[in-house]
Amino acid sequence: MFEDVPQAPADPILGLTEAFKKDSNPAKINLGVGVFTDASGKTPLLDTAKEAEKRLAGAAQSRVYLPIDGDQKFCALMQKLTFGADSEVLFTRRAFTACAPGGTGALRIVADFLKQNFPSAKVWMSNPTWPNHPQIFDAAGVRTDRYPWFDPVANKLDMPGLIEALSKLPAGSAVLLHGCCHNPTGIDPTVEEWTQIAGLLAARKLLPIVDFAYQGFGTGIDEDATGIRILAAHCRELIVCSSCSKNFSLYADRVGAVTFVCNDENSAQRVASQVKRVIRANYSNPPQHGFAIVSTILGDSALCAAWEKEVADMRNRINALRALFADTLAAKGAKQDFGFIKKQLGMFSFSGLSKEQVDALRDQHAIYIVGSGRVSVAGMNEKTMDRLCEAIVSVL
Ligand SMILES: Cc1ncc(COP(=O)(O)O)c(C=O)c1O
To answer: At the top level of CATH, which class does the domain 65-299 belong to?
Structure first.
């Protein structure tokens, strides 16, 4: 049977890392996958995570199965982090949160939930978006389509195109939004734009699904939740898919959460029963360790403050690299203006490099960038910035 199984195409992002690993050039640079690296080129375990692990090791947790929806202490803390400690959503108990294996797992839970409960629903996503978004919903059999997001000429949000597209969607359509640090463009709506988007979604009875993978990497932990909080103030129902991969640097532990905000507590309980059904049939119940690390940090005010500082350090490093990248490109003679890179938010920059230029960088310079021209600023390093920018200028 297996002899006739066709070769699947490599994943556009993780497949690039596989090719990078095989490259024998010692000067190779990987700007594909979104992973934070420090000045020494490593992805560190946060000090707060190390401290939490020490405490957990001392407490010698039992390894009995968790409930289907996982660690409820973690879930309550994630609701606070997302909506704010004084949010009405928390007090009215109309939100249900389940642990999820990373942001990807959270999105897949949503996709299966939609397929089972709203089989004809369609999910609209930004053009462009993270390449795994359409794959996740396709895999669950959910129909997808695109709304405009990026104006490549002005290098900004295509607000008129977005509003026009949302205004035409039939009620009951789901709209996938990036909570902050839009991947790949790094372009987020302003407060006024979020308010306009939220008002339109509410008026047209559209369901927001917010992918929240980078809380703290844009402008701050609370600041980055602004869009979600505006949506929650306008829309009685929304879904949030959170990831703790980047902001807790727990990539391999697969820590995430899915939150359904419902009209009332009764609906939240019924939704919870359906979400648990989805999880039980997928992976039964989540793992324990990474979630325990996060709840140990968030549940201790001193550790939480130290974690916020560590997130700020990662964010500040990325912003400093953004400025260095744009300035070095100019210094190396780039004729086009890359100043927009300084304004984008999050780990990525949408560089405007074409597929041909990306291929030339890989083939001639061992520099690995995804085909869309998205570069991971978080993967750059001061020591190799000159070589990187010289190579980019040579292919422009
Ligand atoms: C926009 C977006 N959503 C979700 C994820 C998935 O995060 P996780 O690694 O927690 O599954 C990523 C990771 O790169 C992402 O960029």
So the answer is: alpha beta
